[in-house]
Amino acid sequence: MGEDRATAPGVPRVVTSFGEARRPRRMAGARQAQQWLLTLLPAFPVLLLVLRLWQLSQQDMSTMLLLVQYVSPLGLLSALLIALVWAFPVVVLAFGVLGRLLRLSAPDRFDPERSLLASGTARTPGWVISAAVALGALTWQLRFVPSLLMLALWLLALRTRYLHPDQPTRVLLVSVALPLAAAILAYTVLGPAIWTAYQDRELATAALLAVPPAATVLLTGPIPGWIAPTLTHGLAFTVAAVLPVVMGAVFLRVPLLPTAAIEVVPKESARTTPAATPATGDGALTEGSGTGPPPVADADPEVVLGALIAVTDTSTIVLDRAATVRFLPNGWVESQVLCPQVTEVPYSLVSVRGWPVEETALNWMMPRRPVVDPDVRCEGRLPGAR
Q1: Are 164 and 170 in contact (CB under 8 A)?
Q2: d(Cα 326, Cα 337) in Å, to the nearest integer?
Q3: 117: pLDDT strictly greater than 90
Q4: What is the mean pLDDT of the segment spanning 233-245?
Q5: Count of alpha carbons within 13 angstroms of residue 338, beta-carbon side
Q6: 285: closest CA among 263, 253, 317?
């Protein structure tokens, strides 16, 4: 009744029987979904950068166009990479665990030609997972390291069960003995910090330190096959929906321009006072235009504190704290200083053996900036003023 038309090697098998679906159609659907994903994925960083500039300009289109004109694309990408480098291990490890759990629990539903989760799992090499674990160990805060250890042990156990089902001793060692040993070691090291977090009512920190070591022993093997497809794909869609929102919220707080304090001393000179000029037709701003008032020659000296946009031949362009673009004549600029980024106040006071839970291993390895007295101009005060 059916006829096999594929005779050459590598040609998809097409069956004309009434009850069997055609394989090329399934492959076309999966490949089409992957093509859409690969097409839209590069647009996400661009969208984040545009939203960050839109927020920095306080939703003013002229200011945004000015920032686009002067802000370096390399600086934008550097800020994006530094702020969101932690997201790569999250994506690789989370989807890796879900895909391997699906393959082990419901092998008949693990079809790389129809499921993006299965396709990503089948095509992700082991060195990528190892690199993701190493990168997470460097860039994740200490309070998230137990979760990283849990995901890494889950991946190792699921991979061992899939590749070596005929070696029960090896499976028992990796799936039971190793997670138990890791949990005991983790609680030995983290026990005082967990108790301190609980006493200080930092329940989120206590849960992040206490729950993952115990949960490591729970998902080192298959789950019931009837629930595996729904559970794994549902969690994968949840991660795919929540992670971009979290990444956007983090990146929208990252500074993109250097903070500078500029001491301005107005001087009597008609040539140094730029006149207000309307914006050009293409949306670009000319010098003298801006949302702030032009400098006045008889004004008192002041310190302009804000984000330094650019320094042209005639003006120093600054975005002050009120999101107002100010064009300061270069002849009026007495001095300027680069102000360091304000250090965020730590939310948690819990530490593990003297290591704060909000600090990453990468920050701990980097040399510390020497502590110096802050410049009074970074506080908005003139030198010598009290």
Answers
A1: yes
A2: 17
A3: no
A4: 92
A5: 5
A6: 317
Asked if 314 and 273 touch (Cβ cutoff 8 Å), the reply is no
C-alpha 56 chain-centroid distance:
19
CB 99 within 8 A of CB 120: yes
Neighbouring-strand partners of residue 333: 264
The CB-based long-range contact list for 162-168 (8 Å cut-off, 24+ gap) reads: 162/100, 162/103, 162/104
- Please give the average per-residue pLDDT across 37-52, as a whole number: 81
Alpha helix ranges (H) inside 164-227: 168-172, 178-199, 203-215
DSSP letter string over 76-125?
HHHHHHHHHTTHHHHHHHHHHHHHHHHHHH-GGG--TTT-HHHHHHHH--
Q: Which residues pair with 308 in a beta bridge?
A: 318
Report residue 187 as tokens: 């609680």
Residue 381 CB burial class (10 angstroms; 0-12, 13-18, ≥19)? middle
Cross-strand partners of 329: 315
Q: What is the DSSP secondary-structure string of 321-355?
A: TTS-EEEEEGGGEEEEEEPPPPPPPPS---EETTE
Span 346-354, average pLDDT: 83
CA distance 104 to 156: 13
Task: Give me the torsion for CA of 374, 380, 382, 385, rounded to 10°.
Answer: -80
pLDDT higher than threshold 50 for residue 197: yes
**Residue 308, burial from CB neighbour count under 10 angstroms (0-12, 13-18, 19+):** buried
DSSP reduced 3-state for 376? helix
Which residues have CB under 8 Å from 36's CB, separation 6+? none
On whether the CB atoms of residues 92 and 136 are closer than 8 A, the answer is no
Determine contact, residues 303/383, Cβ cutoff 8 Å. Answer: no
Q: For the chain, what percent of residues have pLDDT higher than 70?
A: 80
- Predicted pLDDT at 140: 94
Amino acid at 224: P
Is the pTM for the entire model greater than 0.85? no
Beta strand pairing call for 315-320 and 333-338? unpaired
Pull the structure tokens for residue 291: 């949302």
